[in-house]
Write a structure and sequence with these properties.
Elements (H helix, E strand, L loop, with lengths): L1 E5 L6 E6 L9 E2 L5 E7 L2 E6 L5 H11 L2 E2 L5 H14 L1 H5 L4 E8 L8 E2 L24 E7 L10 E4 L12 E4 L4 E4 L11
Parallel strand pairs: 1-12
Antiparallel strand pairs: 1-2, 2-3, 4-5, 5-11, 6-11, 7-8, 7-9, 9-10
């Protein structure tokens, strides 16, 4: 179990610190340099990368922060994620004609064999009509749609996005932790509530 330590008043995340004192050497500094827009659903924490990342960088962030690109396992979770991040990014989304965020599903290893980041088969999918279609020069990474000109591609549906290499195609990515990240100040006072 981990907690995020913050400086009271600044509300800036300084480090992810394991809750057990004997594990302090495993502290993960500067989580706020990599992630933002944290929320919790069903005891899992979700956040966005602060900037676009390649699949290779996403792998590195997963190791560094004990997390992974989101693995969506049901319609309720999908709707929660879509609505939460839509509301968080509403100003940005309204300024563009299309907006997507990468999720943890890919067929990079074998075309048409979609797997989650942990290599498991998806038990739930929410592809937009006619998807995935591997359009153009190849689309190997799943994205959640937040805005699209095509009325068949609705909020929360998925599209296979461009890219055929883990080192190319930089994209803002939704991450997940299998536990609730606790935000506390140095006096162990909770300063942020995730259940909004």
């Amino acid at each position: 179990e981990y907690s995020v330590r913050c400086v009271r008043g600044e509300k800036k995340i300084l480090a992810v610190i394991p809750s057990k004192p004997e594990s302090l050497e495993m502290a993960r500094p500067h989580i706020d340099e990599h992630f933002s827009h944290f929320t919790v659903y069903q005891n899992h924490t979700y956040a966005l990368t602060n900037k676009c990342v390649t699949w290779s960088i996403a792998k590195n962030l997963s190791k560094e922060f004990n997390s992974y690109p989101v693995k969506i396992e049901g319609n309720e979770e999908n709707e929660f994620i879509a609505n939460y991040f839509y509301n968080q990014l509403n100003d940005k989304i309204n300024k563009v004609s299309g907006y997507t965020l990468r999720i943890g599903l890919t067929d990079l290893s074998s075309e048409g064999d979609w797997r989650w980041f942990d290599n498991s088969n998806p038990l739930f999918t929410n592809w937009a009509l006619n998807g995935p279609n591997d359009y153009g020069s190849g689309e190997d990474f799943a994205e959640m749609i937040f805005k699209n000109k095509n009325p068949k591609k609705k909020l929360g549906t998925w599209n296979d996005g461009p890219g055929t290499s883990e080192f190319g195609n930089c994209k803002v990515t939704i991450f997940e932790w299998d536990y609730m990240v606790n935000w506390e100040d140095n006096n162990n006072n909770k300063i942020v509530s995730f259940n909004n």
